[in-house]
Every structure is written in C-alpha cells, then in structure tokens.
Amino acid sequence: MIGYGFMGAAHSQGWRVAPRFFDLPAKPEMTLIVGRNAENTAAAAEKFGWAETATDWRDAVARDDIDVIDIVTPGDSHVEIAIAALEAGKHVLCEKPLANTVEEARAMAEAAEKAAARGVYAMVGFTYRRVPAATYARDLVASGALGEIRQVRANYLQDWLVDPEVPLAWRLQKHLAGSGSLGDIGAHAIDLAQFITGQKLTSVSGMLETFVKQRPILAEASGLSGTASDEMGDVTVDDLALFTGRLDGGAVGSFEATRMSTGRKNAFRIEVSGSKGAISFDLENLNELGFYDATAPAGQQGFTRILVTEPEHPYMEAWWPTGHMLGYEHGFSHQARDFVVDVMGGTQPTPSFADGLQVQQVLEAVEHSAESGSAWTAISGTD
Ligand code: SOE
C-alpha cells in the first residue's frame, strides 16, 4: 500500500477483514506500507497491521514478492505509481478520482489495457458501489422494477470546510487534488449515479463556486485537515459543484457536491425515478433503501423502507444474522473481496481504469462548462 492517511486506514481494514469473512481464492498478505515520513509510516504499519515499511514507492514496485499495489495517495502521484506498477506486472487498486487530469487518466487507462492483455488488472476505488443498499439499488433498476429510468438526483453533502479556519489540506489544492468538491465527492456521485442507472453521462451544464478563497496554511496534517499555521494561502479548488446532465439511456440528472453544506456530515443521497417506481438512498442511513412501487394497488403505494441486511442482499451472507447492520468500513472489505476474486479468476475488475477515465472526462466537462458560463458541454469520447 502506498499512502497511510484516512484512505490508507480504510483500505487496510478492507484487506485485513475481507479474507476473514469471505471465502477468497487467495489470502491477501499485508506486506509493505509506504509513506514519505518514516516515523508516521511505522506508526501506521503498527496500527493497521503491515509487516514492513518503506519511504519510496519504487521499493514496492521493485519487489518480486509483491503482487498488488494499492494506491491511497493524493491524486498528483497516481499516474506515475500506477503506470510503473502495471509495467512491473503488479495488479493495481487506485483510490478515486483516478487522476488529476483527463490526460493522466488516459495514460493510466492505456497502461491498464496493455497490462490486462498480460493478465495484470487495475481497478479504481469507487467504494460506494459496494455498500449493499447501493448494489441492491443497481440490481433493482437492472431487473426492470423501476421501468424506464427518467431522472437521477445525486447530492453528496459534507460540511467539514464550513469553518474558514480549517487549514489548507491537500484536498484544497489543485496541484495535489485536481479539483475540490467536484473531484473528491462529485466523482462518487457521478460513478454511483451511472452504476445504479446503468447509463453514462453524455453532456453536462455546470457551475463551480469557491466560497472561502484563502485559508491558513497547514502546520500538521491530521484526519481530513489538521492544525493551522499563522500564514494564509489561496484555495485553488471549488467548494461547490452543481451540474445537470443527460445520460445515454435517455435519463436526465442533477448533481450537487459540496463540503460546505452546513449540518450535512456525509449525506450522499441518490434518488432514481422511473416509469414504474423509484429508489432513494442516503449514505447517512446506509443499511436502508427506499423503494416505491408505482404498480402497487392505489391506496397501498408509498416508499417502502427496505432494510438491506438480509442474507439475500449483496455481500450480506458473509456477515451477521438477519437484521444486523453494516457501516462505512464494510464497503472497503467488499472492494478487497471483489478485487481478489476477479484478479484470481482472470477477470477485469470493475470499475476499471477506463471507467475511471470516463468519470474524469465528466469532471473536466463540468469544469469547461463552468468556465464558459454553464454552456452545455459534451463528454469527450461520447459525441
Ligand atoms: C472527504 O471529502 C472524503 O474523505 C472523500 O475524500 C472520500 O472519497 C469520501 O468517501 C468521504 O469523504
């Protein structure tokens, strides 16, 4: 694993727990964790259960006893590490968004395609696909239970940046993160909306806003941000992304991503409306899925609260007895499970780097649209 921050903790949990609950064709061994700060990396290794540490990711890529590289660093280093790892014959799991630009994402997708021809696979970590209620929402749509899909509403709302004193962490710097709320959490909204509906965005019209233009420079990182210094620096990314879009199956969508939605902690809400029904999901209530069946007899209609905690639901048979719920971290175990099953089975895991590239193209189209005063902008590659 390259990186040891918040996502490093989440992925470590996934690698450690997945083989203990799921029957996997191979058991991941947590061999090496890499970080630039030797002391912090050693602490992370101890805490999360990695056997060895290194301060240069090239050490991981060079080792013969390492088969998988998991990239959980800020976006600016994804392209270099992922391509080197794939060329060295390592399977790669890379955190979202795939890269900071379409150009980088394209290079990664090309490297992944070449590697796949040699049986070496790459996957991008859009983990929320693996929340059982979200996977089940996709299954319901695919079964035709919603009829023709007409609308999707996806809002990803957090508030950890409301306070202007929160310092300039890497997620607020374009050269490190690529974009702000747009790429950090808007990318999740795009991926999950496309995953659940089975449709891809073809054009968008959007706007971006940066409410707090300067913040204290970071003194020491911790969690999503850290402690502030006395100096100020420029915020170079968006605080809010809002856009509408058309999808290739005829649906239209509205999207909102912001880390400044006062009072909303991790509210990732998706609603899909179809000719025969609708579904409604909120990550803050992730064991539930709302399902409305418009074909039910009049008088009996209404959103049903499905508790997605039964052995019949995706991933659930590996966990607890009926009715016992899961949390945020389980998505990472499901991601590790799916990755290992596909790689060992010689199958391309999804979402692939090509899927990550397509999301990157949507992000770029939103940026172009916002720059041009919200003009409709085609997603490159789909027109
Ligand atoms: C911060 O906004 C963040 O940690 C994102 O970077 C993650 O992708 C998301 O899962 C939770 O929020």
Automatic annotation (TrEMBL):
<keyword id="KW-0560">Oxidoreductase</keyword>
<dbReference type="Pfam" id="PF22725">
    <property type="entry name" value="GFO_IDH_MocA_C3"/>
</dbReference>
<dbReference type="GO" id="GO:0000166">
    <property type="term" value="F:nucleotide binding"/>
</dbReference>
<dbReference type="Pfam" id="PF01408">
    <property type="entry name" value="GFO_IDH_MocA"/>
</dbReference>
<feature type="domain" description="Gfo/Idh/MocA-like oxidoreductase N-terminal">
    <location>
        <begin position="1"/>
        <end position="118"/>
    </location>
</feature>
<dbReference type="InterPro" id="IPR050463">
    <property type="entry name" value="Gfo/Idh/MocA_oxidrdct_glycsds"/>
</dbReference>
<dbReference type="GO" id="GO:0016491">
    <property type="term" value="F:oxidoreductase activity"/>
</dbReference>
<dbReference type="InterPro" id="IPR000683">
    <property type="entry name" value="Gfo/Idh/MocA-like_OxRdtase_N"/>
</dbReference>
<protein>
    <submittedName>
        <fullName>Gfo/Idh/MocA family oxidoreductase</fullName>
    </submittedName>
</protein>
<feature type="domain" description="GFO/IDH/MocA-like oxidoreductase">
    <location>
        <begin position="136"/>
        <end position="279"/>
    </location>
</feature>
<dbReference type="InterPro" id="IPR055170">
    <property type="entry name" value="GFO_IDH_MocA-like_dom"/>
</dbReference>
<keyword id="KW-0520">NAD</keyword>
<dbReference type="InterPro" id="IPR036291">
    <property type="entry name" value="NAD(P)-bd_dom_sf"/>
</dbReference>
